[in-house]
Amino acid sequence: MTRxxxxxxxxxxxxxxxxxxxxxxxxxxxxxxxxxxxGNAFVVHGGSEGIxxxxxxxxxxxxxxxDKVAFWRPKGNANFTSGxxxxxxxxxxxxxxxxxxxxxxxxxxxxxxxxxxxxxxxQGQIIRRPSSKDPDWPRVFGVSFxxxxxxxxxxxxxxxxxRTGMYNLYFIHCDPNLRELALAGKTVWKNPxxxxxxxxxxxxxxxxxxxxxxxxLAVFWFSQYARFWKEILQLQNCISLVVILGLFEMxx
Length: 252
Fold this sequence. Notes:
Layout: H1 2-21, E1 26-34, E2 36-38, E3 41-51, E4 63-72, E5 84-91, H2 113-117, E6 139-144, E7 151-153, E8 158-160, E9 165-173, E10 182-190, H3 204-227, H4 234-251
Transmembrane segments: 206-223, 235-251
Subcellular location: Membrane
Keywords: Membrane, Signal, Transmembrane, Transmembrane helix
């Protein structure tokens, strides 16, 4: 019985050590997210993360990747070709480059008739002006629904990040006929050091140290538990259970 317990604990500790080395991605998943009205646009917030620019000298990569992102509309509302449903990615300092207003009026995300008359945008499209720091930003791309199609799928895209900052993603459309539109899929946000969100990356070493300390204490506890198993009290069994649950929590 003691040997069986020791084997189980050893396997758990090995799994924990593997988990400390291999970090899952910072993934934003979308499961039936609904677009909501914001001014004259319809919006889903896709995520916000701090991302550090990759260093070419160190063979690092930073990016935002779109995986299997798709949009659904009701079958009864599929008898027309729609306007574009677009993904808008921008760094927080470039937030003023999205949207605009005519004659100093209310700021809108979608181009209005007045703005179209001024020649600054195309009516029904998202208003985008190039960033002063990089004319390729903000990134705007999308997909349209074809007639009688209920699903529109985005091309899988990976956007390299070359400037450190806080990045935001919004899915936006300007077509009021696209009622009850839903979003599904995921985006992966990667920093040079891995897939942890940028705001948590500096804590990685701290969590590693604390996890290592917990593992060392767990090894000591279970070695003594196995050594004196005939004298174990019920309270110590409960403590061992708490330690095991703590290890499982670290693995989640």
